[in-house]
Amino acid sequence: MVERAPSPLVERAPSPLVERAQRVETPDPLRAVVETFVERFATGFALSRTVLRGNATSALFGAVAALRTTRPGLVPAGASYAVAALAREPFAGSGDVVRGRFVRRSCCLYYRVPGGGYCGDCVLDPANRPSSS
User: Ferric siderophore reductase C-terminal domain: from which residue to which, for each copy (predicted)?
Assistant: First the structure.
């Protein structure tokens, strides 16, 4: 089972909004919250920091997807922020935008849960791989 957002978060890139968002630093409180989460779970449960950062990035993009139903007018700004965040710590290196959707670079292992399948931003799902040109 693959859970997907109904439509891409990012319709086209780069846009002036994305370019502006790329110049904005990730707020220190967000960085502090993510790194606190990562450190506590990594040390408390022996989990991979890479996977945990991927989970945090997935949550950021998931929050943007949730805006579609609650505050659709904020989706463009939220998507631009999320895309720009991929270039900065703590989100740097955790994923890519492929055909307008976030795809993580680390596996969350959800597919190993009985009946789990792939997550919506799964790196293992062939549908999430960049198309060859």
Answer: 104-124
